[in-house]
Amino acid sequence: MSQNKYLKYFKLSSLFNTRRTRDIFQVNPTVVPQREEAKESKVSVFDYSQGHLHEHSFTGITDCFPFKDNHHTTWINIDGIRKADVEAVCNHYSVHILIQEDILSVGQRPKMDEMDPVLSCLLNMLYFNERTGAVETEQISIVLGRDFVLSFQEDASRDVFDPIREKLRIANSKLRISNADYLCYALLDMIVDNYYVVMEKLGEHIELLEEKIIRSSNTRALAEINNLRKELIVLKRNVNPVRELINGFIRSDSDLLEERTTKYFKDVYDHIVQANDLAENYRDMMMNLQDLYLSNVNLKMNEVMKVMAVVTCLLAPATVIGGIFGMNFDRIPYLHHQYGFFIAVGLMLIVPVWMVFVFRRRGWF
Fold first, then answer.
1. For the ranges 53-67, 232-246, 299-313, which has the lowest average pLDDT?
2. Cα dihedral: 340, 342, 348, 353 (round 10)
3. How do residues 76-120 score in pLDDT, each as one tens digit?
4. Where are the beta strands (DSSP E) in the chain?
5. Of 59, 232, 304, 324, which has the most beta carbons under 10 Å away?
6. pTM of the predicted model as reported, rounded to 2 decimal places
7. Residue 119 in contact with residue 143, Cβ under 8 Å?
């Protein structure tokens, strides 16, 4: 057989260079990644006040320009990010060029920026893929201005903001009678609440994996442990910085945030702190699962070694007796005795049986 057939198993790249690992760890903030332009862009507008609501859907970005400075609260949500559309709407609403660059960026760390005349934040929405068991991310940027909120999403096929849209359609709801800062709070709160949905899915997988390890600790279970640890890294990386983001809104002195809205952001802060604690608990559980796996493997190895040791001990008398009577001497007791063979075999059987009885009484097996 060709030796090259087995060389691939000794290459480190073939053992550790998995695609999921590259996706998680290959993040270099000094390199500007290239964002792929969305094929289509969908613009949805909610223009509302306490007494009225106008809901619109557009395909052209310029169709949302007339809603500026109309003395209503306007939420403009853009699904599908294209450079020309982002620059057009941001320039129309006087959004700083640095915020525009953050919106167009890829793989940014969640953060909050205050650049007059707007406040902006960038974070990731999390989804759990049931088919692959992976935590998927979608970057969303939110810009809060005077009587308007801009939100930019990458994927138009999935969204966590439908409950907010339903509340906006209800007359005299809390959203309808509040200003744009409360809408910004509601968007952030919905994103953070969805983190718990993802963590609940991960928690279910951890519980199932724990039962599987208890039943049988094999290489498949070890692979699942490593996969779940990677997904927890994704979760922790996206959840932990959101605490600083929310804290930025709480400490901000901007006129765009009313004092009565601060308590709502404090509630989101409590939720994200709890989410961080839960993520840490999951991380500890994964470490415990790894220890449980190693303990079960060592326990199985000990059982095997114990059986082999017992077998070796039981065969030792027969080996000794056979070795003594197999020596090439002229004079050996019972060498020419008519029952010598049966006496030797009897000793070979009686001594191991007696050893088994002694081992059992001492509780060695």
1. 299-313
2. -140
3. 999 988 899 999 999 999 999 999 999 998 888 899 999 988 999
4. 42-48, 53-58, 73-79, 111-115, 118-129, 134-145, 148-153
5. 232
6. 0.78
7. yes
- Residue 268: exposed, middle, or buried by beta-carbon count in 10 A (0-12, 13-18, 19+)? buried
Question: 318 with 270, same domain?
Answer: no
The tokens describing 250, both together, are 């709480």
Contact 319, 328 (CB under 8 A): no
Q: Which phi and psi angles does 194 have, rounded to 5°?
A: -70, -20
- My answer on whether 185 and 253 are in the same domain is yes
Angle between helices 97-104 and 83-92 (to 10 degrees): 150
Q: Are 302 and 287 in contact, with CB atoms under 8 Å apart?
A: no
Considering only CA atoms, which of 128, 130, 268 is closest in space to residue 199?
A: 128
Supply the DSSP symbol for 8.
G
CA distance 188 to 190: 5
Q: What is the pLDDT of residues 235-250, one digit of tens each?
A: 999 999 999 999 999 9
